[in-house]
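Hi D.,

Good news: the full-assembly prediction came through. Inputs first.
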Amino acid sequence: MIIVFGESSVIVDLQYSDLLAPAMVCGFTLAVVDLMFNQIPSDDGFGWQAGGIVVLNLSGTEIEQAQAIRSENPALAFSECFALSRAARPQHTLVTENPKLREIAKDHGVSAQGFNWFLDQMGHSGRIAAGVLRAGLTTLLKMGRRRMSQEEIEERCQSWNTRRAIA
Amino acid sequence: MIGDRLKRAREAAGFSLRDLEGAIEAEVSAQAIGKYERNEMMPGSNVLLRLAKALKVTPEYLLGTRDITLVGVDFRKATRASAKEVKSVEAIVLDHIERYLELEFLMPGAELEWVAPRGNTFKVHEIEQAEIAAESLREQWVLGISPIANMTELLEIKGIKVISLDLPQNVSGSKAFVRRPDAEDVAVIVVNRAHNGDRQRFTLAHELAHLALKFIGMSDTEQEKAADRFAGAFLMAKQMVHQVLGLNRTSVSIGELVEIKKVFKTSVPCLIVRCSQLGILSRGSYGKLWAQVRQLGWNAPGSNEPNQCPSEVPQRMALLGLRAVVEQVISKAKAAELLRMDIHELDDRLEPERRLVPA
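Then the structure:
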């Protein structure tokens, strides 16, 4: 599955929480569209690519689609519309913290999920220890970057352990 | 499609189709670029990004669909600004205003409209009438006689979009109007970002004159002089200048003016001219002070005059963008796009405490 991130802050969260490298071993291709990649500072860009983030191009038709989405939804950024348009390809899922973007994606028949769903996928993959995820989420919590309480983090970790045990 | 904007940006950059093909290292042919401009074809994103980079515009600008144009641009002291420089600045202004208007559109109630003052006072037939017009505008805007703390903020509150840009050193600024279909024109003032606050404030007041006054039967030179007179009177209200300097002085020292400029946030040459206009200085004192100013190089670009006021930075658009994110009207990605900020800077502006990454 190709995960197309809808905004750079999701990747920044993965970096701050030391979860970017673990995310790479969970069996996904993690990607951003080139328009978004173009907007980040070059130091970050080198780090992302070195960390395994793939940069995706759009065809002219996909750009026209993105432009149309943006005309209908002026509150969206072009980079978000690019991500949505590119994520319409098979085997792609858009991951975004913007609920409006998820809603519009679903209206266009595009698979769209939030950051917590992505964490669940990591947890359920069985390829990384729940302790790593717990530590990462706790770091984000301390930095005020996630609105998830410590109890919710523990509950989530428990769910990942349970699911793996059942599997 | 991107045709109109691509063509406009290419022309602003002074490129032919062949030049542009060369600038993107023949990633696509001049014929293909021509097709993009005629909306016969849409480039892929890799080509789009390269075109934007070569034309020194953002991809978002090329993708925009808002139909706006810039009219009435009149660069102050722009005789030495080349046509290419003027076109390039116009393109940047349009891009900036487009983002600004979009932000206001997304924040209902945020739009502030410039309404030019009405009345005979603002119809100016001769230079001296600009003095009365400045007093009247101060009165209409309930500014009293106090110096103006922040010209940029004042003009933005009055519905004028102020843009601070890198301009050629010899260009102070310009007023302009952004024309849009089915809506009022938007008044804009562009100032040179590199100039100190003293100079910027005078430019802003001068351009305000061009927006607020109706010059009747005056030559271009007279209009410029009247705008200067208005600027001096607006920044340094007669009554306040009299209170600070007195009604009539036999002598004023440069050192005294260097201190007084902190009150009005204007340059020493402006203060000298203002004192002369108000009859505070005799012709002899005026000439003596100007000779000193020339000797010190304070009337020339790059003046190292003491007590220079820091440059004024337009804040309204950024504040509006941050408010829109906090109120969840737009996403961070959208705010970053509109404010041309990377996500780290946006995070820092929204929540500075996050800079403290835990060990």
